[in-house]
Structures are given as structure tokens and as C-alpha cells.
Amino acid sequence: MSQALIIIHCQSCYSLESIIIPEAVTNIGDDSFAGCKSLTSVIIPKNVTTIGTCAFLSCTGLTSITIPENVTTIGSRAFRGCTNLVSIDIPDGVNCIGNDAFYSTPWYDNQPDGLVYAGKVAYKYKGEMPEGTQIVIKEGTKGLSQNMFEICPGLSSIFIPKSVTYISDHIFDDLNNLISIVIEEGNCVYDSRDGCNAIIETATNTLVLGCQNTVIPDDVLQIGDFAFWLCRGLTSITIPEGVRSIGYASFYGCNGLESITIPNNVTSIDKKTFMNCRKLKSITLGSSLKNIKVEAFWECWPTFLACYAEIPPTCDIMTFAGTPEKCTLYVPKNSIDAYKSAEIWKKFVSIKDISEAETSINTTIAKENANSIYDLQGRKVNSQLRKKGIYIQNGKKSLDIRP
Asked: What is the pLDDT of residues 33-74, one digit of tens each?
């Protein structure tokens, strides 16, 4: 059977009262019936697998809907504003529900406060969350919905059972007090290896979501889109050398983050990656970096910026905001002239040999405390928690090769 997609422009369907969707249809497209206020009866065929974004938005005549058993995905705002929708039959096969899919419906409004489930999906936390709340997702749950903990500052920990096989992005938006994330052992899709306090997609070694207590494991290869989005409690994070890519807006709005080092294996920094990290004072970019995309460091105000790439990475005019006028740039000695002539980089009022920055760090550390251990950016490191790598002690670099 060939796939069919139904798209109806609601502007011409205000008088539509009922519809039987043809059996050949497998996807109900975005906005298909949005605004069909007279629609009171919809029969969705068994072959449908996806109900798109805003598909039935503001269909105020609907009082009930039965989702067929083959549906796996319900898009964002799919039934939002269906103000008379009191009954929704959601089959167990649904594992992905978008943001506000049932917002402003009697079905949702009539749910008790607490974590609301829609079929086998943990859909939304309703009501005010008490401080120090520990959430245990119930066994048998298949999916976690987008923005399920939107504005829930009381959340301190979450336990996710092995039955969960789909986790949306943005489930932890703006949670300042979340300190513990645990995935039950035996989950075939996700894990929280080594007590890392993060959600990792096992097959790809991608860190999907983190919190202020996350320690990124050494075998993680990617940091996913929005992974630490608005994680305001995050003040420091070590990105292991094995990481190859850092996703879109992955540290957006982490305005407690004070320093960051991009590993040498990373070749590109995506859009808005560190946007609005307003306390980010120290930035070190690795030697393989080739491209920094638009607004990657927008609204960051570093006082220290070092780039080990010998060839200046390409940048967008909006990559940095005000930084070149106020921050000294440190680069390899033989690359100073190249940076002084490269677009965006040439706007830095001062470009110096990177060895000068390393010498300055060494001197400062030696004066402060000869017995303390620091990383290459001058940040003091807890000797019991540090990982293998290069550190500075007594003004000298040393290699820690602990397993």
C-alpha cells in the first residue's frame, strides 16, 4: 500500500460537520482540520500511524475521539483548544506525544494534579510541584512527552523504567533543582551509565538530556540537541576528548556556566550552542575546529578566549556578540597573522600567542597554591574526581593516566 497524506486547508472547512477519512490514509498532516469548529464526528482509519501538529487544533465541536491502534505519534497541539473534548481513547502503541497536544481540553482539565499519563505516555505534570519532588515513572510507560516537566522547579530527581523507549527533547525545560537522573538497568534504548545523572542513547553514545550534576562519561561521542537547554544550575562541565559533535542549542541559556573547553575531536559548533550563557568567562576551542555556526556564543561575554586551530574556523557575523571588542584572543603563534586577516576573528582588538595564556595560568596557579591541581584553563580540580588528562600542579603540566 502506498503511503497517503491528508492535508485539508481549514479556511474552507468551517462548516464541515463530519468526515470519514479514507482507509488508504496513513498520516494525518499538520493543520489538516485546524479550526473546523463545526466538526463533531471524525472516523480515523486503522492504517493511520501519525497525527500531525495542530491536526485538530480548535475543533471545538469534537466531544470524543478514538485513536486507532496503529498510531504511534500525536503531534504538538494536535487537539489543543478542543474545548468540548471530554473523551480520548489512546491506544498502547502511542509512544510519542508532542507539546500541548491536549492543552485546553476538558479531558486534560479534568485530570487530577500530578503526572498525567496519556495511554502509555507520561504526558504532563499538572499543578504546582512541591519542592524536593522525586518522580518515579511507572513501569510499562513507553514514552516521555515534550515539556512534560515545563516550569517544575520542585523536581529534584527522576527514575525512568526500562520500558521507556522514546524520550522527547525538552522534557526538563528550565529545571534549576534537578540533580539526579537514573535509567533502570535493562533499558534497550537508553542508559545512565556510571552514575552520570544523564540520559544517554545507548546505540549512538549520544547524551540526550542532562542536569546540573551530570558527569559526561568518557565514551560519549555526541551531545544532543537541547541536551542542557536552560539548565541554569549548571556551573561547570567537562566535555571528554572523545566527543565529536555538540548539538543545536545544547547549552542554551546555561547562565551559571563559567567556562567551557571544546575537545580536539570537535570540528563544528552548532547554532545557538552556548547562546545566552552570560557568565561564560573562559572559552577554549580545540585544534580540529573548522566551523562555528550562527549565534553559537551570542550573548556570552568571555574575558578569555583561546583557539588551538591553526586555520581560523569559519564564523558567522552573529557568532559572537561584542566579544571581539572586549576579549583577548589567544591562538597558535604561527597563526596570528591568519587570524588577524580572517573574517570575524580580525575584529578582536588583541590577538596573542597562546603560549602567553598558558604561562599566565601557570604563574597564577603557582602563586595561589602550589599543592592545588588545575586544568589548562586555570580552574581548580578536585583531585579525587578528576579524570585522565593533562593537569597543572606546582606550575608544571602533568599527565594523569588513571583508568
From this structure: 999 999 999 999 999 999 999 999 999 999 999 999 999 999
Which range is least confidently modeled, 6-10, 295-299, 390-394? 6-10
How far apart, in whole angstroms, are the C-alpha atoms of residue 88 and residue 101? Answer: 12
The sign of the dihedral angle between the CA atoms of 381, 382, 383, 389 is negative
- At 13 the pLDDT is 73
Given the candidates 3.40.50.450, 3.30.1390.20, 3.80.10.10, 1.10.10.10, the CATH classification of the domain at 1-110 is 3.80.10.10
**3-state secondary structure labels for all residues of 255-302:** CCCCEEECCCCCCEECCCCCCCCCCCCEEEECCCCCEECCCCECCCCC
Helix (H) or strand (E) holding 336: helix 336-341
The ranges assigned to domains in the chain are 1-110
pTM over 0.85, yes/no: no
